[in-house]
Write a structure and sequence with these properties.
Blueprint (H helix, E strand, L loop, with lengths): L9 H40 L4 H9 L5 H16 L2 H14 L9 H13 L2 H14 L6 H15 L6 E4 L6 H10 L8 H7 L5 E6 L9 E8 L6 H5 L13 E9 L10 H15 L5 E4 L6 H6 L3 H8 L2 H6 L7 H12 L5 H15 L2 E2 L2 E2 L2 H8 L3 E6 L6 H7 L3 E5 L5 H9 L7 H4 L2
Parallel strand pairs: 4-5
Antiparallel strand pairs: 1-2, 2-3, 3-4, 6-7, 8-9
Helix pairs in contact: 2-3, 2-4, 3-5, 6-7
């Protein structure tokens, strides 16, 4: 009989159990390794997701900066914070504050905590965003203001102006950087790439401060136009169809937009250094320039005006017959605001224009607790500039009408008078130009 090649020999039958046993052992070993890997991943996930206890969080304040356990907790806390939403972040901040609430004396323990977080993330951007959240929640989380103030002091050192680099931004800059100009523009919104191209064109300038550890993020930037006289209408400056200025004939540099990009750096002043550095740069490039001024919004004017009563407004305007002639003798502040907003986009009489400018002038020179009421005035006057002029219907955009009834201000930077202007401001008398005095 011919043997069947598929028949199983006795030897084969005997050998099978050994192979099966080896195979089972191999599968068992692989399964054990797989379970170990799974348990390790689960352990890592659990470690990341669980919230550190109060004792672990307190160690972030008290342990040495080289303490391994405390640094592991700090890294875990930061990872949770980055993954959290708004309410969860508030809870994590509250956890930090509560853990350090009874530390006496506090001394530099809060600074040690913050330095530890900075080292573990190795991200200055994280610390800036952390302070932005602290500013947002500090009135809702008891004790958070103390930690926020400590972080502000650290950031003030880390963002010392000596460490910042001034760079021009042009149409040839990386697209990612140009996109950030659109994203962070806080004064006059950029609606298209054509508008952006106009603002960084060959006859314009845009400068920004950068930090070496945040080299792709402009911290603050200023947009500059050039003109043969002081500008008084921002729509003209922003319109891409406006003919290009002849730089050889330009005698004025106009700063028409200054934007801080990082809420977490609020109160850390390097804007004044920016303007002075930019003036140096443009003078080096265009020595024919004679004057430097802003064309600035007056963001608090409308809100202030709406709160004024009839008697206060009559005292500011002085001329009762003038108010009577334009039908505003008994107007409240709210009625005045509505009238000025309507007049700014229509045919306003000279009397209405003069009254509106006079009210704006009074607001810009108003001082409270030693500082100008208006935040933009506070910035420029605090840099040593003077209020040179107020301009009627200078910004008819919806934002301009809402904030300031379309009125804008020019602040003049005379490099020879900055210090004297600061002395006058400290005495409660902001420096003003001749055109402004006539109001």
């Amino acid at each position: 009989m011919t043997p069947n090649p598929r028949a199983v020999t006795p030897t084969a039958v005997v050998a099978a159990p050994e192979k099966i046993g080896d195979s089972l052992k191999q599968h068992a070993a692989e399964g054990q390794e797989s379970r170990k890997g799974l348990m390790a991943r689960l352990g890592s996930w659990w470690e990341r997701e669980r919230s550190p206890g109060s004792a672990e969080i307190k160690a972030l304040y008290t342990a040495r900066l080289t303490d391994v356990a405390a640094n592991r907790t700090a890294k875990q806390w930061c990872a949770q914070y980055l993954a959290a939403d708004g309410k969860a972040r508030r809870a994590l901040l509250a956890q930090l504050v509560q853990a350090g609430a009874d530390l006496e004396p506090r001394a530099d323990l809060g600074l040690r905590l913050l330095r530890r977080l900075n080292v573990q993330t190795d991200s200055l951007q994280f610390m800036v965003e952390l302070r932005a959240d602290m500013l947002h929640w500090r009135n809702q989380v008891a004790g958070l203001a103390v930690l926020e103030h400590e972080l502000e002091s650290l950031l003030s050192n880390w963002f010392d102006v000596g460490m910042l680099e001034l760079k021009p931004i042009t149409w040839d800059s990386p697209a990612s950087l140009l996109e950030k100009l659109i994203q962070y523009e806080a004064v006059h919104e950029i609606h298209s790439w054509d508008e952006l191209k106009h603002r960084v064109a060959h006859n314009r300038r845009c400068y920004a401060f950068f930090h070496p550890r945040m080299s792709d993020v402009p911290l603050i930037f200023v947009e500059v136009a050039f003109a043969h006289q002081m500008a008084g209408n921002v729509q003209v400056l922003l319109d891409p169809k406006t003919p290009a200025e002849d730089l050889d004939k330009a005698r004025w540099a106009i700063f028409y937009s200054i934007s801080n990009t990082q809420p977490g750096l609020r109160g850390i002043s390097f804007g004044n250094f920016l303007l002075k550095r930019v003036i140096e740069e443009v003078l080096r490039e265009m020595p024919r320039l004679k004057s430097f001024a802003t064309l600035s919004p007056i963001p608090g004017f409308t809100d202030w005006l709406k709160k004024q009563d009839r008697q206060t407004l009559q005292a500011i305007l002085h001329d009762r017959s003038e108010a009577k002639a334009v039908g505003t003798e008994d107007h409240t502040g709210a009625l005045w605001a509505a009238k000025l907003q309507k007049a700014a986009v229509g045919q306003a009489s000279e009397l209405v224009q003069r009254a509106g400018l006079k009210l704006a002038a009074h607001y810009l020179t108003a001082i409270k607790n030693g500082h100008p009421l208006d935040p933009v005035a506070r910035f420029h006057l605090g840099n040593g500039a003077r209020i040179e002029r107020v301009n009627w219907a200078a910004d008819n955009s919806p934002k301009g009408l809402e904030q300031s009834c379309a009125i804008m201000a020019n602040y003049l930077y005379d490099l020879n008078e900055l210090d004297q202007n600061l002395v006058q401001l400290a005495a409660g008398k902001p420096s003003v130009g001749r055109n402004f005095k006539r109001l």
